[in-house]
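Much of our argument rests on the idea that a fold can be written as discrete symbols. The record that follows shows the chain in one-letter code together with its fold in token form.
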Amino acid sequence: MEVSLLFKIGAVGILVSVLCQILKHSQREELAFLTSLTGLLLVLFWVLPYIYDLFHTIENLFAL
């Protein structure tokens, strides 16, 4: 895993948390929820290839 990916995930986490706090204080809880869901999906799409590689490696490890 690359270090830059960890920095991207951290930056998205900080940005999403700040935006959610701003939206919650302005009485827009629905937009805050959608913002956090969007951040979660974005990070999931970044991490998904690494999860696929992990399962593929485990499958090859236990293949007969």
In short: The chain has two helices and no strands.
